[in-house]
Write a structure and sequence with these properties.
About 30% of the residues lie in helices and about 30% in strands. By secondary structure, it is α+β, with helices and mostly antiparallel strands.
């Protein structure tokens, strides 16, 4: 039985016959046809950049998916989470927000004013973010896609070193 899965720290997917992988060749087992690198211990900046790329791809896929619920399930987005008070939070809404960075502002040396630098037109950059709203009887949690992807990649990274196939 062939299983297909992806790892957030890879740029490719693997198809594995898990029945044959038990003690034989396959994922994380050496043989000439299965040599590829695994990026472990990457910098925080590289990890953040990777999450941004994943987020952008996720948003595009969600936008075009005919069955949004199935897309979320296949992507591993949780439909329920534990709330701060122990009650179950349920996913009720997903929003995609478009932003354009028009300029930047930072503290100016020797002044109480900010140094403002508007960007020339070609430098104005569009960014999209996605937000998921979870509710219970007592709580509402707005969770950004990058947070969910980060939580997921942390779980995958911790579990990645010790696969049981």
């Amino acid at each position: 039985m062939s299983k297909h899965h992806s790892h957030t720290d890879h740029t490719h997917h693997h198809d594995h016959d898990h029945a044959q992988d038990m003690g034989g060749v396959g994922h994380n087992h050496a043989h000439a046809d299965h040599l590829h690198s695994h990026v472990h211990g990457q910098s925080d900046a590289a990890h953040a950049d990777q999450l941004k790329v994943l987020s952008s791809s996720f948003v595009e896929g969600f936008r075009t998916a005919e069955d949004k619920t199935s897309y979320l399930r296949l992507s591993g987005i949780p439909f329920q989470r534990s709330g701060a008070d122990g009650l179950t939070l349920n996913l009720v809404d997903a929003t995609i927000i478009s932003n354009w960075q028009i300029g930047t502002a930072c503290p100016a040396f020797g002044s109480r004013e900010l140094a403002y630098l508007p960007f020339p037109g070609p430098m104005v950059d569009a960014r999209e973010t996605m937000n998921f709203v979870y509710v219970s009887l007592t709580e509402r949690a707005d969770i950004d896609l990058l947070t969910l992807l980060s939580e997921r990649s942390d779980i995958l990274e911790k579990g990645h070193h010790h696969h049981d196939h």
